[in-house]
Amino acid sequence: MPKSVLVIGGGIAGIQAALDLGDQGVEVYLIEKSPSIGGRMAQLDKTFPTLDCSSCILTPKMVSVARHPMVRLLTYSEVVEVKGKAGDFYVKVLKKPRYVDEDKCIGCGECASKCPSKVPDEFNLGMSNRRAIYFPFPQAVPLKATIDREHCFYFTKGICRVCERFCPTRAINFEQKPETLELNVASIIVATGYELMDPRIAPTYGYGKYPNVYTSLEFERLLSSTGPTGGEIMRRSDNKHPKSIAFIQCVCSRDVKVNPNCSAFCCMASVKHAILAKEHLPEVDCTIFYMDLRAFGKGYQEFYNRAVREFRVKFIRAKPAKIEEDPETKDLIITYEDTFTGVKKSIRVEMVVLAVGVKPVYPEALSLPIGEDGYILLKNPIIEPVAADIDGVYVVGVAAGAKDIPDSVIQASSAAVKASILAEGVVHE
Amino acid sequence: MEVITVYEKPTKVAPELSARLIELGAGKFIRCFNCGNCTAICPLTQDNVSYPRKLIRYAIMGIEDKIVSSIDPWLCYYCGECSDYCPRDADPGSFMMALRRYLTTKYDWTGISRLLYLSKKVEIMAIMIVAAIVGLLIYFLHGPVVLDRVQLETFAPIHIVDTAGLAVFFILAVLLITNLYRMYRFVMRDEYGERVRVPLKFLVADFVKTVPVHFFTQMKFKLCRVSNWINHLIMVYGYAAAFILFVPLLRFTQTNEPFLIVNPLSIIGIFSTLALLYGASISIRGRIRRSQPMWSYSHLTDWMFITMLLIVTVTGILVGIFRFIGLPLATYVTYSIHLMIVAPFLLLEVPFAKWAHLAYRPFAVYFSDLKKHFQSKGGGIHA
Q1: pLDDT-wise least confident of A219-228, B81-90, B176-185, B323-332
Q2: Residue to substitute from B32, B34, B35, interface A, most A β-carbons within 10 A
Q3: Where exactly are the structural domains of chain A?
């Protein structure tokens, strides 16, 4: 009988689950489909309510999990097939070719600096460019280059191979083939996370049409020193600092026609954004449009209080109906009803940030039952809050329901314990 | 600090208000979570005119006084944007429509409106009774039935039909004016619910400025949804022309002469009835298909209104056709049916039901302008 556990998804929840299992002496396979672990948290600048630097608390965990003797990290890999039952799952994993020999690559970055093919950078949500051979972000783990086959001139046009010429360790290998690994595991932890909804489905807000309307994650990248502007809050239209920013809550969420769920973290994330904007630009005027401000966690209410008292962030209780753009200045005019006074108003701001709702990502190879809310169904959300509806499968983080980082980490540790029980023999050793 | 004492009337809560509005078609408004999206998206709301959210709030809390004293439901023309964009699918548009039905029952002092709106049986019975009375009157009072050629005037002597028409007109005028006065009494209040006394010069000046303009152009409707406004105008003018042709000018249109198409009156008659036929068909098709928010919910009174309008129009057209091709008996029978439907249509719908909006809508603009004098000057003179 197998003694190992499979963790699908290398975000903060998957990393925590793998670490906790490894520390118990359980063998873990941590599968991540992108070239680096880190997930959404790696894209964040700061975390609420303490304003800790996100990378500073995440990166050590990323490194620990990669170096852990009990954890086998499989990045750029996908689970393609799962068979069997609790205690005895057979899993097929496809390891996509990086076209770079991971053992030889030293992460110097010479290849990426010489590559002539420019590609919109997923990590910065397309707000900057990367190359066809790239590292997703500076703190990527493993720090190994990856060739994006779709944009590489050698693969698309049959010419170039510049990276091969400049690589000091001769790590480039255009002949690499996909590999299939077969694993036998006792239990599976699903930590596949989320994607943002497309704010274009709320057409009255003009995302994609007006350059100065951003999503919350885009704004997070603007704040970050590793972001497209090096941490400067600048407008897409004119590269100037905005004098006023409006944050709109519940975009593509809490709307029965689009997505009835609350995304749980946006309220605090926007409070954080407003505070950080004030720290970056002390003169900026920040307004948050909210329907119900959900400050439920430890220190969250105090965080909100701080935003109001210390940072003078304005809060308006309204769901704005529409945003219009002044075609000359590219400023944005927001129409709303102030529901405290019942008066219809409009304000002009220079930048708008939409707190966009989330949708879960499902592990494709594992057909898990989905709940009515669209998240992976839990066996019993009250007393088995991490068990999926299939024995031996656990689901943590936003894939199981919208939640913030602390709650995802709690679930990950909880699932690690549950999963280790099935990894036979561990308890008795 | 200056201490301001405000004596506000205690708020009376009507717990049954929500249930009453749901009976009138308010649908799902209880789902509302008060985000204000509806008010903000509405093309007709302005700084000091704010609906539907506020009214939904009042309804959920059961504050009947605030709703009865509000003009806002009449300033809404049901474009349905609020319902399209409502994140709770609470359908504020239907709610506003239900408020208009509700207010119609409140303005009506006879209580008949309430009975018609709240009971399908009463509504159908009332129509049948009025139709039966008219039928009996025709049966006993009709003139000689000439069968060798069409003699409509001989069958329905003009002095009798005219007198009946005048009587109906008089009853309608009395009911509408008294109901409008009640509406005025309800709505002319300040924010504390105290009645406001309006100086005569405002009463006259604002009336002249608003009522005729809005009655004839319905320009508020235009801001709402242009295509609906055009359809509505076609119906209104079609109806107005038909009304003038067949009520005050009846002695020229209901004659023993053969029906001639080249006659100018006939041409007006043909165009006005075609306009009505067009309007009624569009509306019936829309209500069946629920193709627009404003047709998404149809109360029985809506169906009755539109069906009776269609029957009146079709029978009216048929009378013309039968006269034209010279079918005496068919003309007389169709004309009798026409009168039997016209009577309940006018007597029930105009003062008590949907059609009352022809008075309430333009007067709502008038009253809302009157109220502005007091808002802008910081409160009115307390009665």
Answers
A1: B323-332
A2: B35
A3: 4-96+178-193+361-422, 110-166, 198-357
